[in-house]
Specification:
Rossmann fold; three-stranded antiparallel β-sheet; four-stranded mixed β-sheet; 366 residues; globular; 3 domains; alpha/beta; single chain; 14 helices
């Protein structure tokens, strides 16, 4: 198995968006016997209609089945890509199109608005910052926020004022702006008005659709993708209802908090072996390998495992400390701890538990 490289930072034009560079390299896959279809979703680019995340699954079902009918297709279809291209694989696979034989969502979030009860705003904030949702050239129209119909006008004003008074929202201009112009990102606005775990909101997420996925899945991410994508890999591996022997997971290193290189290419050799097996019935040996491949930071070695969490896990609680540290011993703090990863670099006060694998190996499971 050729293992992925460790991507270094390179400039990317986030104002225009990097979507076309996140779908995998056509000049790699096409000469190796594949046709790559890159659609504009509903209401985006040259596609008509209103952009709705809820339509991704059913629209994708129709697209998969159309592809399977084309003379250049053998009837077996897979999906590739990172970020949005990865996240879209979950709702489409959950619709169970007959000709979708396998998926490989790498760097695909599952859309949970809260992690452990904490509002997870990293992805939406990144979208605002990149200007992707503010560009009329990309998004033609967006639906009305559901909260407009859920609450009376008086209740809506009250909830918006509560959100505007939240110190966390006040400290992020993109989110405060959204309270003044909810139509700019209806989904995030609705989530902001439901800051705690809410069954009605959770039921609409990709996470809730994982149980309906029955086909082979190879999920993956990088360790420093905690803001958006890392949890999606673990969510997918844990909750997709495919046979255990048909699920795999790959967690890779990266020096770049902005993600993999653009164009996305680091694991295309692994993608090729995965789909040569499931779409072409070629024996690539990929299913004979352990289901989990992890890069262990610090000791900088690859580790191959059969389950997650690992059988040798020793759960240890860590507590926040002054001086940008965490310790396994509880003690009273003498001041409020504050950390801004966006300003100071890698996140500081994050781990509340960890996997201690062996001397020198400590990993956070989520």
């Amino acid at each position: 198995m050729k293992l992925p490289t460790n991507p270094i930072w390179q400039a990317s034009d986030y104002v225009r968006g990097t979507g076309g560079q996140e779908c995998g390299e056509q000049w790699y896959f096409v000469p190796r016997g594949y046709v790559q279809v890159i659609p504009d979703p509903r209401g985006i680019g040259k596609s008509d209609g209103e952009s709705r995340l809820a339509a991704t699954g059913k629209d994708g079902y129709d697209l998969i089945e159309w592809i399977a009918e084309q003379p250049w297709c053998n009837g077996n279809v897979g999906m590739i890509g990172m970020s949005a291209y990865a996240g879209a694989q979950y709702p489409i696979a959950a619709e169970q199109p007959p000709h979708l034989k396998a998926i490989m969502p790498f760097e695909g979030g599952t859309g949970r608005p809260t992690h452990g009860g904490v509002f997870a705003h990293g992805f939406s904030g990144a979208f605002f910052g990149h200007g992707a949702w503010l560009s009329a050239a990309r998004i033609k129209s967006v639906p009305r926020p559901a909260s407009f119909d859920e609450f009376s006008e008086q209740e809506l004003r009250k909830k918006i004022k509560e959100v505007q008074s939240d110190p966390d929202i006040m400290s992020v201009p993109y989110y405060y702006l959204l309270t003044l112009a909810p139509e700019r990102h209806p989904n995030t606005f609705d989530q902001m008005l439901h800051p705690y775990p809410d069954p009605a909101i959770e039921s609409q997420t990709r996470y809730n659709q994982l149980k309906d996925i029955k086909i082979p899945t190879y999920a993956g991410s990088r360790w420093n993708a905690w803001v958006i994508h890392l949890h999606g890999a673990f969510d997918g591996f844990d909750n997709i209802d495919a046979p255990k022997e048909q699920k795999k997971m790959l967690i890779v290193p990266s020096d770049n908090y902005g993600g993999m290189d653009r164009p996305y290419h680091e694991i295309q050799d692994v993608i090729l072996r995965w789909y040569d097996h499931w779409l072409k019935d070629n024996d690539t040996g990929i299913m004979n390998e352990p289901p989990i491949t992890l890069f262990i930071p610090g000791i900088n070695k690859w580790r191959y495992e059969n389950e997650w969490p690992l059988a040798a896990t020793q759960w240890t609680k860590f507590y926040l400390r002054e001086g940008a540290s965490c310790q396994p011993k509880r003690q009273m703090l003498t001041r409020t701890l504050w950390s801004s990863p966006a300003i100071r670099g890698p996140i500081l006060f994050r781990a509340v538990s960890a996997l201690i694998l062996a001397p020198g190996e400590i990993l956070s499971p989520r």
